[in-house]
Amino acid sequence: MAEINYGQLSEPPLVLWLIWQNTETRNRYHVGNLIYEKGQYLFYYEKKNRRSLSEAEKDGYEPHLAFPDTEKVYRSSALFPAFERRLPDRRRVRFKEILKSLDLDETADDFELLAATGGRLATDPYEFVMPITRNENEFIFSFYIAGWRYNQGEEMLDQLTRGMSVQLKLEPENEKDPKAVALYDSVLGQKLGYVPAFYSGFIFDLLQSGSSCRADITEINRNAYPQKKVKVSIRGGVQGKEPGFISEYTMSVEEATETYNALRKDA
Known about the structure:
The protein has 8 helices and 13 strands.
């Protein structure tokens, strides 16, 4: 297999996935999409991909109060108030410190701030995550390890370092999710946790198809909540003809723009 050049791929801040978690079952779903381009925001519910709106509704999900119509495409020239309130207050005395901790500067707009913080609040089960971005046959995305508290992650925390590779192992016999993908440290082979469910279907199908990817630790927050302790970046590529499932799980910059333009006409 030819060597894949991973270094030139980046994650353009154009689309964010809205994730909802059932606080009782702990299952997480990709329920919506926020698109930003040329000063315009669009929001619509996700109905195509795995672990999307229909599955979430079966697990008790009800539409966001600010976006009650699941068939509608919502648009705005500013970040929707329901999402804007999820950002750090720019009037705070320590706001510059917050930006620095997020690797942002004072020129960061609301979309960049939402992407960096995830828009997480302690009062509800929503968060925003970056989508799987595709550039021709290569892709990149990152996430925090799921299921941390239920595996050996905490025991291994002091031995983990930024840049360390982790192993991906498929769990087709997993009763809760037959497309589960577990993460193991590359030193002692201890199970750290899982790839979040809204990403795991893509990785599972990718590895089953014989294509390649690599996983590396990019962030370690020892004092954070368990679900935000360790961040992993996935980079990979598809060799030869692109499998059909690629377009189901990923979006290229061009496709995101086309989707935005089409939705804007209908909005």
